[in-house]
Queue: 4 jobs
Job 1
Amino acid sequence: METSEIIYLEKTINELTKAYKKLSSNIIDQDHNFKELQKYMVEYKNELDKFQVYDYQQTLSMIDKHGFARVMEREQVRKLIESPYFGRFDFLYHGDHPSEAETFYIGRFGFADEEGTQIIYDWRAPICNMYYEFEIGEAYYIAMDQQFDGELIKKRQIKIENSKLQYVLDSSLTIQDQVLQQTLNQHTNDKMRTIVTSIQREQNKIVRNESAYNVIIQGVAGSGKTAVALHRIAYYLYKFRDTLRAERIFILSPNKVFGDYISTVLPELGEEPIRSFTLDELTEKLLPAGVTFRSFEGETKEILSNPNGELALRAKMKGNYSFVQKLQSFLFNLDSRLLKNENISIAGVVLQADYLQGRFLQYRSEPIVTRLELMADDIIQALKSKWDREGKIPNKSEIIKRLKKRLLFSSPLEIYRSFIETQGQNSFKFSKKHFEFNDVYPYLFVQFYFKGIKQYELVQHFVLDEMQDYTPIQYAVLSKVFTCKRTIIGDFSQAILPYETISKEAFGVMFNNLEYVELTTSYRSSYEIALYAKKFMHNGEIHPIARHGEEPKECMYLTFEQMLKQIHEIAMNDYRTTAIICKGEKDLQILQERLNIPFTVLDGQTGKFETGLVLTTIQYAKGLEFDVVIVPFVNETNYRTEFDRGLMYIASTRAMHELTVLVDKEAPSPLL
Ligand SMILES: Nc1ncnc2c1ncn2[C@@H]1O[C@H](COP(=O)(O)OP(=O)(O)OP(=O)(O)O)[C@@H](O)[C@H]1O
């Protein structure tokens, strides 16, 4: 190993250790000051006036805040002592002499010594873009709106563990190769890991993209979409640290356990954790108080168990973009008849129907309730100009009340009902106080039209995972609720609903300033598993990474007992995580009763991602990954249709290292 690297590491660790000690003594001092002041306040409680108490309290809170920041800083330094950096590159600025090439070490966080010399550069620093973006040769970076050209003359991957240099690899190519292979070969953890050391070029482009208002990432299973979205957040928090706050980022995730699974990535990157919400949690906040709804999760479960049932049909007709168009045009047409075409006489002055209609349409971009308010202002003005008698002009709220009485429908619910009835009697099932999920978002769209909707104005960035499970009408509402920048990720091949939902085309129509990116390399599964899964993919490309492992197995069984035995055998392995992924609830319950080894069930109630043996269904395994995956009950009933093919794709791509499909010998799935 090069001595220069050993020396640099020693120097770095020295500086870091110094900084660690300094921070520690600073923290102790702060703590001491805090306690002293607190003691003083208690002792002299009776002698301090309220202004002094206030002053001291402010000081205490400042010490506390300061102390907290120091603790966070020390934690970063501690992590850096373990592994200060993972790469190095040497850059020669154009015009400089070759001996003047500058060396940069890149790490999870930046670090400068006491003199202010930057010893480690944060991976998100502008200059570090070159590490991910360029190979040896011509390169440039942009900082403070200025482009700096030059040549990358060295690029190294460095592994440091427990402050010890493990290896140094010169890479002439991209960051592919051994390091990535090694990372991917590892067994799963109970939480998602950061990928800073091996972010690939196409991923890096998305992480650092600042131009698009809406970024849509379509990526094959295991292409790192979720990882990329989280690193993008970390990048934004770094780049826009003066204005962007972690608590103002909103992640909409498919289920609770997924939220837990991704929860450590940002803290690992030195950022505050970001709580994610499920669609059900968000929906509860959007609907008026007292209105309940069947959960998205519950409804999806039922639709999956009966894809041709009535519920599925009701949901299906509201799933595609043409439904949004129908509702939009219904509301557009309603505009010209919602306010009855009648004159109104207020305080003896007759307001002509034409005039009222004109005002009503003039404010078309506003919700109905706001329109009436604006009209009331206009009417008061008009009345004032015509007022020639003694007496009082009615006040605004009285006028609004009069106008409201002239509305054909008096609530969003009435409007929605009249619309949905035009779609056929079997198209809906709701009461005043309770909705099926498939009616919730169309209703909220009407609510927006009628009186507006709760907007998350403080949210600065909106992230949505598993985009293919959302329908255009849901996007139409969500885009009104979250008007900030958005990162939307998913895979059209991993649809969990058996009908058309959002499509690339619909995104194009519904969102302006949109950048659509595709990721086709799969990093999660071994080459053999990814290739096997490819046959279940509807369309599109999947490029497996060349990390080899065992061929997936299709094991036949004749009886349930035989299948159970196979499961037991496979589950006894040395990996950290094994998942038995059933198609639906029914199969899960059968196994739950009959499995004879310790396992945990992962479903809608699960809030924590557990290692060990997990029994789950495709619906809940989405987005997650396991070392070993077993897909049981692969028979002609379960896996038959084109939709089932997609489910097989989801299930098999959850596997990183081993995949076994248990096939009913007498009635095998025709999809195999
Ligand atoms: N550049 C990379 N370096 C190392 N590991 C990576 C890289 N990109 C992705 N991975 C790993 O690949 C796995 C899949 O990533 P992730 O879950 O983000 O993919 P996804 O596209 O969201 O998958 P899915 O759609 O199947 O849920 C993770 O273990 C992630 O850490």
Job 2
Amino acid sequence: MALVRGSRQSKLGLRLPDITERRPRFPPTASQLPKTTASQQPTTTADYETVQVLGHGNGGTVYKVVQKKTSNLFALKVVNAGSDPTMRRQVFREMDILRRTDSPYVVKCHEIFEKPDGDIAILMEYMDAGTLDSLSKTGGALTERTLAHVARQILNGLNYLHAHKIVHRDIKPANLLVNKNMEVKIADFGVSKIMHRTLDACDSYVGTCAYMSPERFDPDSYGANYNGYSGDIWSLGLTMLELFVGHFPLLPTGQKPDWATLMCAICFGEPPSLPEGVSDEFRGFIECCLQKDSGKRWTASQLLSHPFCRQPDNN
Ligand SMILES: Nc1ncnc2c1ncn2[C@@H]1O[C@H](COP(=O)(O)OP(=O)(O)OP(=O)(O)O)[C@@H](O)[C@H]1O
């Protein structure tokens, strides 16, 4: 059964929970610390003041916070993991991956606060332009040129993750954070997976099913030796297409997605394609991402050399 992720109403208000016991399970390395706080002592959540709620997700609430001493802004994701085993598994997975990653294309984690009752708060770099989803909804569809810049950054992030045997499994516009410099970073590792062996299967129905690749629904038809990495590339292709056309490309505008309709569109329909009038490079790039047969899809490192990604940057 597909796990379609919905938003959970958080019990948390604007006041930050009192997470006073800081257990530095994963102390950041010097390179992981931001320049602005590298020389400072570890902090507690009492050192931060809430500015506003940035978003609610399945896993908790994300707050914009200011460090009282320095006035630096951060994002603080607070998860009430409590005794819910699924929630605990997700947050520990996210913590584990954030601890392992150090890339300019993956959202940076500065500190993790833990309380014995299960509340966990993850202090991250603040991305001041929101997500690619919110950006495209407020600013309209993105141009080819901007998308080439965006694609390069996501591919650099995926190339890094895949080289470290991490499959994201939930690439979509809402999980790609942006800042005012138009830097794009991959976030939300709640359903990601660390592959321990090269041929580890990665066939579980987790993530947002709208962006799932055909082989995740039907590994026999579309993905011999499916290992998950190429599923991230399908999701990237769909994300690029959505950001260009301005709506989720597999369904008519306004149609509410349900699992069966999506499954039919993804597995039995033609792969979605770009409208007339786009460059050959962009069309070719999307085709390389949206091959239904996972074995024919290009890898992140191959796509970084695709002519679409190699055009000059205007950002
Ligand atoms: N580092 C950040 N900087 C700015 N905004 C952020 C940051 N992290 C998260 N957000 C905002 O908070 C929202 C929810 O974050 P996130 O997706 O991590 O929560 P979640 O509980 O894991 O959600 P999901 O249900 O997708 O798993 C995001 O959509 C985004 O708007």
Job 3
Amino acid sequence: MKCTGGIDLRDVEEMNINIDPIQAGGRLTADAMKAVISYGDGYSVCDNCGKPFRLDYINKPPIAEFHEDLAAFVGMDQARVVPGARRGFQAVAGTYVGKGDPVMLTALSHYTEFIAVENAGGIPHEIPKDAQNIIRADAAAERIEEVTRTFGRPPVLLFIDHVDYQFGNIHEVREIARVAHDYDVPVLLNGAYTVGIMPVDGKSLGVDFVIGSGHKSMAAPAPSGMLATTSERAEEVFRTTQVKGDLTGRTFGIKEVEMMGCTLMGVTLMGMMASFPHVQERVKRWDEEIEKSRIVIDALTSIEGTAVRSEMPRRHTLTRVDTSRSFDRVAETHKKRGFFLSSALKKKGIVGVIPGATKVWKFNTYGITRAQAEYVAAAYLEIAEENGLSVSPAE
Ligand SMILES: Cc1ncc(COP(=O)(O)O)c(C=O)c1O
């Protein structure tokens, strides 16, 4: 079907079960879709902007209140919406990182964290993962000490992914934050895979910043996200402008430097706000999401030669699977080669896995129903059996 302008309408969501690893938590709610239509104009949220002229002072729609709600949602004191998690990283790095400063990241940090550090002139140092692909506090302590000795001063900032994008593993955030604070290093929690899908309490984790991605995990249009912090750090990261133009003497005092004055407007912000009540509710059902993911995991691990590379038992719905000794063996002789798997899944109405991937791949069951999880599990078993792989039912 075509809509005006010659753009094909997207059929992935309506026609299929989508287990794409990165899309799961960002799918819009019906309320967000309505908001997108009604607030499509670029400056649609600015109708009632009045003194002081800044996005987070607008009361209608209730943006000021939304910021407060976002902060409370992740157990912090203040929050702002930002155009994607990466812009949150950039704001924090822009505040604390100067040229040549050492910054701690991890072996599982997302590339956007590296870019935020590089953009600010910092030097990234990675904390290694252990054999189970977990970032541990011991390793963090060792690396912080090493970097401190080398530079003659501690790192200026530490990034830790609450759940990483490669394995969907949960890391030792609370313990790492404690270690970092012993060296007075502020801690940024990357909640791109947690804020909006599972409960997150930044204060209880002891971090200084909590960053979420709207389009990844808060059922919001892209690019959207949030940056929350403590009252103390808010003064630094949400600082307002200080300098004057030398010719006109103009100042822009109320505008926040790292937010470039105002942040999200129109569709992104209103979509995020419209989904928020649903998001607040859905994080309470995280255990059900884990159960659904285990239905698919049990099926996959019952296929001879298949292994899960993420931590087990699963504590997140994003999982990395190794089928190099099962589906990839089939691919060696199949006429469709590695594409046989994605093609067989597509025929059964399941999409979102990388076409051609039969060695190591990821999937995410977040947001599908229990019946759909059972259907996906059965589909993998059928495809295995149809291709001569033996299946031993889970105990
Ligand atoms: C772990 C992780 N962190 C950060 C990001 C960046 O998020 P955003 O697209 O909201 O900037 C992504 C996704 O691209 C991610 O997977």
Job 4
Amino acid sequence: MKSDLLEQTAVSTAEVDDQCISIPSPFQMRQNLPLDENGQATVARARTEIGDILQGKDSERLLILCGPCSIDNVNSALVYAERFARLAEEVLDKALLVMRTYFEKPRSVVGWKGLLYDPMTEGERSPAAGIALARRLLARLTGSGVSCATEFLNPLLAPYLEDCMSYGSIGARTVESQIHRELASRLEMPIGLKNGMDGGLSSAVNAVRSAQSSHSFYSQDLHGCPALVSTQGNNGAHVILRGGSNGPNFDSKSVSNAVDAGRLLGLSRGVVVDCSHGNSGKDHRKQASVAMEVLRQKVAGQDGIAGIMLESNLVAGQQSANAGPRVFGQSITDACIGWKDTECLVRELAASL
Ligand SMILES: O=C[C@H](O)[C@H](O)COP(=O)(O)O
Ligand SMILES: C=C(OP(=O)(O)O)C(=O)O
């Protein structure tokens, strides 16, 4: 019995060794690709400003999390960011624009898992190159004043990018995971916790409660060594309504239920509405009407709404990642609204506030 076990262990260790590629630690990556002073200031300022919106200290402005479903091409992300920065400046008094820079994608089954895994979209062969590319892009964006948001999916990857992010989310597929709730409680930025895949509110509310709490949990330090981490809890944890298999949840009753649940947890403006995903039935053309309905509720007096999320890219729609030459600036994951429509929508939202 004992020798069998040893034999099996020896075999599996050999397999693991064959299948492992060492990558630099988060500490090394941060040292090699640091944020400059402007970048650090952008991150810090946006974290505070988002926190002020969530706590109701800034009751004037709407948080707008807007950008590609996923970053698959850094050049198109740079072009997008340039336009985004101009728009953000234009609507500054009415809205705080934070760019979606999503480098990991949770898949319903399988598919491209994001730039961190497969930076050239040609197979998962050089993941560390993806991390370095993402950091380079984030250093450029934050250095030029664009604040960034992402979904934190693999907890081991968070330390590679979290210092560049002003806002984070935990997605519908992982919001019930204790490991992700612990991560959310550690992260030093506002974190939106999405409702689960069925569209029910309770998974998000339970996740907010957990993320607000202190935890001790097993993780790694910045050098990649196993570590027991202690957290104080995240007071910027809040709900993102994204709809689900039971239908959308951006109607006034669903929003007010979420606002009330948030208030019981001490959040005065604790709700962000994702206008895409389950709230648009993944039809990008519906995002604008979802956003306008949320705005209507806000203008009618629903002051618990902190913000909205939009999936937007240079070119509207979606294309396959593997079907020949690609359209520059069009999503290879979920369909997005195009830049012209994004600009019109954000201007319209700002004008109505
Ligand atoms: O936001 C992106 C997608 O909705 C998510 O990654 C799931 O995509 P999939 O259902 O195509 O795998
Ligand atoms: C995957 C995402 O969202 P959700 O978790 O709501 O599906 C996303 O926002 O990219």
